[in-house]
From TrEMBL:
Pfam families cross-referenced by the UniProt entry: NAD_binding_8
Organism: Cutaneotrichosporon spelunceum
Entry-linked InterPro entries: FAD-binding_Monooxygenases, FAD/NAD-bd_sf
Signal sequence segment: none
Keyword Flavoprotein in record: yes
Keywords (A to Z) from UniProt: FAD, Flavoprotein, Monooxygenase, NADP, Oxidoreductase
Protein name: Cyclohexanone monooxygenase
MF terms in GO: monooxygenase activity
Length: 632
């Protein structure tokens, strides 16, 4: 395998380099340590431990602190295509629809006051994306935009979302500050009835849902949350009135003489803590499980270099990223980040081991990959722990910040100021050794049997993940014969290609599961879905059909394909608990379906689906109850 450096004048990307040798004894000791750390954290209540924001926080998830909602007349008209959600899923799909000539009778319904989705809501200071902007930001070439840096901050991402919306004329189709209540299929009219909490009652021929897997923030499962009498907020609803400052790095001047507490040390907290540490009078970081934080190596994008990129560069970069993330092998690595670094390392090791053992690399299989993952992982995570010792001055704090699990048990983090923040004398790590905070009272937080008085409390405690799709979105979808989607999926998601659901005609799910499931770059799933939907609508028009629906057989076969080939070798029950592994509880069929993916990898899924839609046959789909071959 040859992986060359990118032939462009960018700063040489830095990555955390694995330690050279981990002995067999060290590997065995790591195994035992990982399991012991996991066992400390397993809770009987698993995914149900978390609590809702409503009734506890001033800025709950049903409030929009960023846009003043103006009253308007309810709508009672009809649209051809409705998109639920206004994030990158909506923007990417609607952009592709517009490109394909679907110009009118389009509506985008969004609970926030603008486009952006997670980037509209998550305005915590320090918010940025740790997938490289050159591939993460969709439609860069189409809208003529250049990212300012390899990894960009929230405000720039939100501005890009708005730019897409302006470029494709999507604002005129937007219905902001509107909350869907029910979506009901009307068999007699073959359309969806849409009711919102704002009193709208209109119909739509087609509906797409892009409401995201991590859109409903939650609070820790501890006693006394509601008792805290001082300002408190979740990172997904930042309260700038309390902190001052802004989400683009501005100083939060109102915190300068405050004792601030933050609960949680996941991917969000890793970005937020450096800003809080810089600006708070004192900061207490309450940790249940440490994040593994590797080097990020951000750098500016040189405009002159950017101008030299050939037309079609983004498509090429994305294809290269997808290929690497799926196989670890390609001739170049355009992105060169921590994600591609890790997969190249695993594949490289697999081939190296095969050659060493006289195996034919052409005959390597999944077991060899898993073995190589384990070998390289020990070396990599040891290096990340060694980095903690190098960066953090106080030994006890450095030890507390070490992550004792495999890299992909939790969301890998990359940051260049997080560990450094713990060298600021006013920043204190309160490591709870896996127990979490004990309770909260009127004036502060209890942890390790000690009371910490706080003026401001921040929850960086994540989002609903494993609960039902409709519960996460606070809405219900009723398909044929009043079948609720939450019932149809009561025992797990059942779909064809992750997008179509039997008994829910003309409904397109735009997400990541049971399809390409490219978690390392979510937006690629969306732009591709846009092409698929545009192709299907075109076919429907050609056929003069009105209803698009998966056949029962196609869905059953797809579900079987997912279940028969399910593996969670990176996030299984041996991992420390978290939303990647059902909080450490055994994954049943339901969990396997909800987290399921096309078994042959993202790159193969994108190839398969492109062939599928380009063939014009749309195998497995019925138009007005018949396959294309019969209808045409
Ligand atoms: P997470 O669910 O990853 O983290 C929640 C944190 O809260 C964990 O550290 C958890 O500890 C902690 N916690 C929960 N309950 C308690 C308790 N009782 N006491 C103490 N601590 C507690 O949520 P995040 O918001 O950090 O991240 C969610 C996802 O959002 C990420 O995985 C990622 O996909 C995405 N994201 C992406 C970013 C990007 O750059 N692209 C940046 C930020 C987020 P424990 O680990 O023990 O459960």
């Amino acid at each position: 395998m040859t992986v060359q450096a990118i032939p462009v004048p960018q700063a040489v990307p830095e990555q955390t380099k694995p330690v050279d040798v981990v002995t067999d004894e060290e590997r065995a000791a790591l195994r035992a340590k990982y399991l012991a750390e996991r066992d400390k954290r397993i809770r009987a209540d698993g995914v149900s431990q978390y609590k809702q924001l409503k009734g506890i926080l001033k800025l709950s998830d049903d409030k929009d602190p960023y846009t003043e909602v103006k009253p308007r007349e309810p709508l009672s008209d009809h649209v051809d295509f409705l998109f639920l959600g206004g994030g990158f899923a909506a923007l990417s799909v609607c952009a592709r629809l517009k490109e394909a000539g679907f110009n009118d009778s389009l509506r985008i319904l969004e609970s926030g006051g603008d486009f952006g989705g997670v980037w509209y809501w998550n305005r915590f200071p320090g918010a940025m994306c740790d997938t490289a902007a050159m591939v993460y930001l969709p439609l860069l070439e189409e809208v003529g935009n250049r990212p300012s840096a390899k990894y960009v901050r929230g405000p720039e991402i939100l501005a890009h979302a708005q730019r897409i919306a302006r470029h494709y004329g999507l604002y005129e189709h937007a219905l902001f500050s509107t909350h869907l209540e029910t979506l009901t299929w009307e068999e007699e009219n073959q359309q969806w009835r849409v009711k919102t909490k704002e009193g709208d009652n209109f119909t739509a021929t087609h509906v797409a849902m892009g409401t995201g897997p991590l859109n409903k923030p939650h609070l820790p499962g501890v006693e006394g949350l509601e008792k805290f009498e001082r300002p408190a907020m979740h990172t997904a609803r930042w309260d700038f009135e309390v902190t001052g400052g802004g989400w683009d790095g501005e100083v939060m001047e109102k915190l300068k003489d405050k004792r601030v507490g933050i609960i949680g040390t996941g991917a969000t907290a890793v970005q937020c803590i450096p800003q809080l540490g810089r600006d708070s009078g004192e900061l207490f970081v309450f940790q249940r499980t440490a994040s593994a934080v590797a080097v990020r190596g951000n750098h500016e994008i040189d405009p002159e270099w950017f101008a030299t990129l050939d037309k079609g560069w983004q498509r090429k970069w994305i294809a290269n990223f997808v290929q690497l993330m799926s196989t670890g092998i390609d001739d170049v690595d355009h992105v060169q980040d921590g994600w591609t670094d890790s997969v190249k390392r695993i594949t490289g090791r697999m081939i190296e081991e095969a050659i060493k053992n006289g195996q034919d690399p052409a005959e390597l299989g999944f077991t060899d990959y898993v073995k190589a993952y384990h070998l390289t992982d020990d070396e990599y995570t040891s290096a990340v722990r060694a980095r903690t010792d190098e960066v953090v001055n106080d030994k006890e704090t450095a030890d507390g910040l070490k992550a004792w699990y495999r890299q992909y048990c939790k969301r890998p983090c990359f940051h260049d100021e997080y560990l450094e923040t713990f060298n600021i004398p006013t920043v204190h790590l309160v490591d709870t050794d896996g127990k979490g905070v004990e309770r909260i009272d009127e004036t502060g937080v209890w942890a390790n049997g000690k009371h910490y008085e706080l003026d401001v409390l921040v929850y960086a405690t994540g989002f609903e993940f494993s609960s039902s799709y409709t519960k996460r979105s606070d809405l219900e979808v009723y398909g044929r014969n009043g079948l609720a989607l939450s019932d149809a999926w009561g025992e797990g998601m059942r779909s064809y290609q992750g997008m179509h659901v039997r008994d829910f005609p003309n409904l397109f799910i735009v997400g990541v599961f049971q399809g390409a499931s490219l978690i390392s770059n979510i937006t690629t799933n969306f732009t591709d879905a846009g092409q698929t939907i545009a192709a299907m609508l075109k076919k429907e028009k050609e056929l003069g059909a009105k209803v698009i629906e998966t056949s029962q057989q196609a869905q059953d076969d797809w579900v079987k394909l997912i279940l028969d080939n399910y593996t969670n070798f990176i996030g299984g029950p041996e991992c420390t608990p978290g939303y990647y592994n059902n909080e450490g509880h055994e994954e049943g069929e339901k969990e396997r379906l909800n987290g399921g993916r096309y078994p042959h990898g993202s790159h193969k899924f994108f190839e398969y689906i492109a062939d599928w839609r380009n063939s014009g046959e749309f195998e497995g789909i019925e138009f007005d109850g018949k396959p294309v071959a019969v209808t045409a």
